[in-house]
Every structure is written in C-alpha cells, then in structure tokens.
Amino acid sequence: MTNPAAAPVVGIVMGSDSDWPVMEAAAKVLDEFSVPYEVDVVSAHRMPREMIAYGEEADGRGLKVIIAGAGGAAHLPGMLASVTPLPVIGVPVPLKYLDGMDSLLSIVQMPAGVPVATVSVAGARNAGLLAIRMLAAHDPELLGRMREFQQDLNDQATEKGKRLRAKAMGADSFGFGT
Ligand SMILES: Nc1c(C(=O)O)ncn1[C@@H]1O[C@H](COP(=O)(O)O)[C@@H](O)[C@H]1O
Known about the structure:
EC 5.4.99.18; 46% helix; alpha/beta; PurE_prokaryotes; binds ligand C2R
C-alpha cells in the first residue's frame, strides 16, 4: 500500500467525479507499486482557471507525471499538456453515448508540439503502468519491480495456455471445435 504521507509524484485528475469508477484503476496500480499519487477533479471546461493553475504548478509541487481522464469533449488532457512541461497521459472515459469514441478522438488528435500519451478507452490501469515505467526510467529499484511484474504477466499467460491445452485436448475432446 502507498504511504499516504509520501509526497505525490503522479497526479491523477479527471473532469468529473463521475469518471472515478474508470480512473480508480490507475490509482490501484500505483498502490500496487507503492508509488505516491494525488487525485483531484480538474475540469478545463468547468473550472478553467484552476485547471491552468494545476498544470502550471504541477512540476513545482514535485509531480513527475500527470494522468488525466475525461469523457465526451475531453479537452482536459490536452489543455494540461499545453501548460505543463511534464508528460501527460490521457485516459478516454466512455460515457452513455458514442462508447468513448468522442473522448478517444478528442484526446488522441493533438496538434504537433503538444503531446499527450493516449491509452485505450477506459485504459486507466495501463495509464498507471505507463506512469510507473516513466518514473522507473530513472529509478533502478522501480525498474526491477516493473520487470518482476512483466515476468508475472508472462507466467500467468503461460499457465492459461497450459490450462487451455489441457481442457481442449482432454479425454473427450480431440481439438478446438469438436
Ligand atoms: N471532458 C470533460 C471536461 C474537460 O475536458 O475539461 N470536464 C468535464 N468533462 C467530462 O464531462 C463528463 C460528464 O461529467 P458529469 O458527470 O459531471 O456531468 C465527464 O466524463 C467529465 O470528464
């Protein structure tokens, strides 16, 4: 579990508290790696001055990466990227209509010079993992833990293959589809 007293190095922000059920996965994986983070609602549309201040002050407060999630006309990640020199990872949050295609396209199609690293629709866990990889590039201990995590993924996939082969090629089956 992350030490709540440690200074946050990742900022997880979202356009509304209604995004939390999706964005929570980023916080969870940061907890798994004991990376300190902060969470807030910062909307470019509804609170533009606070959003600009958040982006402008983020690096001075010790943040190293910002994860920004928003749904619909998702301008938050791009607007933050325009005012901070830190890497910004955008998470398209799916809403009731359009299945997240609207937020995906709003986040991914940034003009040249202002990058946002966009993950898949609702890909908050991958956003957290990407933030950890960015931090790990300068932290050998964290890099080691990322390698272990990758090895675990490998082992789990291998185990699934073993189980599937056993099931599909078992006594009453001669292969897939039989
Ligand atoms: N896309 C944005 C921005 C922004 O980009 O600044 N601010 C809020 N929102 C989004 O509006 C959706 C509906 O918000 P409400 O549930 O509060 O009505 C949320 O997904 C939020 O991210």
